[in-house]
Input
Amino acid sequence: MFLFVVPGRRRRWKSLLSLLVLAFLGGAVIGCGGMANMAAANPGSTPGTTTGTYTVTVTGTSGATVQSTPVSVGVN
Output
């Protein structure tokens, strides 16, 4: 982002600071808007993983050695 913000010629600090604040606020607005739209499209539904216990198998590999182990994950 800073490569696009800093121009080749000199600018005033006020305009550079204004641009950075605007970019920050724009990112915050875009980043915070996702789940509300999803809930509005499906009223009565809960987005995300349902409550319960899940088993996940974790596998590690190093060269020819392979090791796996099951891990239980609880979702409230």
